[in-house]
Write a structure and sequence with these properties.
This protein folds into 2 domains: 7-158 and 327-451, FAD/NAD(P)-binding domain (3-Layer(bba) Sandwich); 166-323, Elongation Factor Tu (Ef-tu), domain 3. 31% of the residues lie in helices and 16% in strands. The protein has helices spanning 14-25, 67-77, 81-88, 101-113, 146-156, 206-218, 240-244, 297-304, 329-332, 357-375, 388-399, 428-451; strands spanning 7-10, 30-34, 57-60, 90-91, 96-99, 118-122, 136-138, 161-167, 170-172, 182-183, 199-204, 272-278, 285-288, 315-317, 320-326, 338-339, 342-347. Strands 6-2-1-7-17-16 form a 6-stranded mixed beta sheet, covered by helices on one side. The protein has a 6-stranded antiparallel beta sheet with strand order 10-11-12-13-9-14. Strands 3-5-4 form a 3-stranded antiparallel beta sheet. It is globular, with a radius of gyration of 22 Å.
Length: 452
């Protein structure tokens, strides 16, 4: 039996960890290169693999009505390490799949460390990988080291596209005043591992809400560097000040939406609500849902303590802002996620222009499987575009317009329309989801047969 040469994976985030796992699971040796702690980033706090930098939520876990929930189920069926670890370390979060971030990261790192075909190298790959690395998965994410980013952009001839991604604050649970705030999921809806009382809700009346909006808009904010001035935000992760600047009622239709919530202390309907979601298994930390911000630290403490129930809040982590970089993938990547100008380089994760933890890991899963097949002398086609994973691949490798390409979360708008459209609108998403899972099972069957 011919000994296979290793595939190199650069980046130990969600996408890189998943790609490495899929390669090893297919019997292909892999070297996973992670630059932390040798070189730190602006956003990471640990050296752990698959660290969750922003939220601890993988969003909805409902496979028949939500595209990201469908993506969860597809990844489970495909043997995803990321979803296995998430399921093992989930914490209550209504209809969402949220995890204890530290236990989750430790689970992923232990699985990779203990796999006999995985070697973890703690080092920065500065510039292009060595020429004798004939198969490389670049999964460096939105915080790609400058030297590597410049080298890749030199190969593509494309100007960098970038946006700002903001981090929400985390509060110590014991510092929240539960004589004011209360536990309740929206519409009392339980989710995976939840009870229907999975969020802490801080109520604001009309005067409190407008005072809060005024404080947000007047608060002292982070100054951008000159080269960052024209970098656009990702619409799905706007800082709360930016949302507030679009209209005083905007937050009431976003992260401060009061619909489906009733104050358990007095039966009133709040004008606005700040929700906090459990951030670790112990329940000692809660994050402020949707409260990513570019306010300076002192301003965050001052302004957020005006929220009823958070007057004495102690923060385990304050919000922050960092710059994310991604490729113009529809123009520079082929259907195998390879760089057209340098096919030995395959890309995965947020650097390809998908947005979200699960979407990034999903691209890592496919990139790992494609690289494994290629190493064995085969060619693995992407999943059908009727699946969530296939729809994402199709979007970033040609479905999107290169001239207007922006990061995208998975959504049913990326899927081909149904040939037999149900008359009832409520049945359309479930019908698309059932089609996706059936088509994915067919693709997985073909993939397994090819691997054997």
């Amino acid at each position: 039996m011919v000994e296979l040469r290793p595939v190199h994976v650069i980046g130990g985030g969600l996408a890189g960890s998943e790609a490495a796992w899929q390669l090893a699971a297919a019997g292909v040796p892999v070297v996973l290169h992670e630059m932390r702690p040798i070189r730190k980033t602006e956003a990471h706090q640990t050296e752990g693999l698959a660290e969750l930098v922003c939220s601890n939520s993988f969003r909805s876990d409902e496979p028949l009505t939500n595209a990201v929930g469908l993506l969860h189920e597809e990844m489970r069926r495909a043997g995803s390490l990321i979803l296995t670890a998430a399921d093992k370390h989930k914490v209550p979060a209504g209809g969402a799949l949220a995890v204890d971030r530290d236990a989750f990261s430790a689970e992923v790192e232990a699985a990779l460390t203990n796999h006999p075909l995985v070697t973890i190298a703690r080092e920065e790959i500065a510039g292009l990988p060595p020429a004798d690395w004939d198969s490389v998965v670049v999964a460096t994410g939105p915080l790609t080291s400058p030297a590597l980013a410049e080298a890749v952009l030199g190969l593509t001839g494309e100007a960098s596209l970038a946006f700002f991604d903001a981090i929400a604050p985390i509060v110590h649970t014991e510092s929240i005043d539960l004589d004011v705030a209360w536990f309740q999921s929206r519409y009392d809806k339980p989710g995976p591992g939840g009870t229907g009382k999975d969020y802490i809700n801080c109520p604001l009346d009309r005067d409190q809400y407008f005072a809060f909006i005024e404080a947000l808009q007047a608060g002292d904010k982070t100054e951008f560097k000159e080269w960052e001035q024209n970098t656009p935000y990702f619409e799905g992760c706007l800082p709360i000040e930016v949302m507030a600047g679009r209209g005083v009622e905007t937050l009431r239709w976003g992260p401060m939406k009061p619909i489906g919530l009733t104050n358990r202390h007095n039966g009133s309907k709040p004008y606005g609500v700040v929700q906090l979601r459990q951030d670790n298994r112990l329940g000692t930390l809660y994050n402020m849902v949707g409260f990513q911000t570019k306010l300076k630290y002192a301003e965050q403490v001052r302004i957020f303590r005006t929220i009823p129930g958070l007057e004495k809040a102690e923060f385990a982590r304050l919000g922050g802002l960092h710059r994310n970089t991604f490729l113009n993938s529809p123009k520079v990547l082929d259907g195998q996620l390879r760089l057209r100008s340098e096919p030995r380089l395959r890309f995965a994760g947020q650097v390809t222009g998908v947005e979200g933890y699960v979407e990034s890991a999903a691209i890592g899963l496919i990139a790992g499987r494609m690289a494994a097949a290629e190493r064995k002398g085969d060619l693995l086609s992407a999943p059908p575009p009727t699946t969530a994973m296939g729809a994402l691949i199709a979007h970033i490798t040609g479905g999107a317009e290169a001239e207007t390409f922006q990061p995208m979360n998975v959504n049913f708008g990326l899927f081909p329309p149904l040939t037999d459209i149900p008359k009832a609108k409520a049945e359309r998403k479930p019908a698309m989801a059932r089609r996706a899972l059936a088509d994915l099972d067919g693709w997985l069957g073909v993939s397994r047969a090819a691997a054997e």
